[in-house]
Inverse folding.
């Protein structure tokens, strides 16, 4: 991807958690992607990162912050990077960044950032301890 994303990836130990192309069905009335779609992709990426880090299922318990920094448009290549900020007994906190680029372009724009708290859960949906 772009040099800027590579720099963010290297400096923060962020991991690519999700990559998706936006579609016209995800548009709001203003011609950009719905904020709810953006939040859902961030939640999905946090879930993938949390599940991988805890070797099992996780659930979202809090979104401490979500900033919409730049519109996302249809037919863009969207990447979500995650970085674990802390791990507790049953929970993990992640910083997420959503970057979007026009298809075939190398320059990406930081569109959203968020902080999610995920809790590891067992097969009954009860909190479980995270192995460290």
């Amino acid at each position: 991807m772009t040099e800027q994303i590579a720099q963010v990836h290297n400096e923060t130990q962020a991991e690519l958690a999700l990559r998706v192309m936006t579609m016209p069905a995800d548009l709001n009335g203003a011609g950009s992607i719905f904020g709810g779609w953006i939040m859902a992709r961030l939640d999905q990426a946090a879930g993938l990162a949390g599940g991988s880090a805890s070797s099992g299922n996780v659930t979202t318990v809090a979104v401490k912050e979500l900033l919409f920094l730049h519109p996302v448009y249809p037919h863009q290549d969207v990447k979500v990077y995650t970085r674990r900020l802390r791990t507790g007994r049953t929970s993990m906190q992640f910083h997420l960044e959503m970057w979007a680029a026009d298809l075939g372009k190398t320059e990406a724009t930081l569109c959203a950032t968020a902080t999610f708290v995920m809790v590891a859960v067992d097969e009954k949906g009860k909190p479980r301890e995270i192995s460290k």
Observations:
- The longest strand covers residues 76-87.
- The helical segments are 3-12, 35-54.
- Confidence is low (pLDDT under 50) at residues 5-11.
- DSSP finds two helices and five strands in the chain.
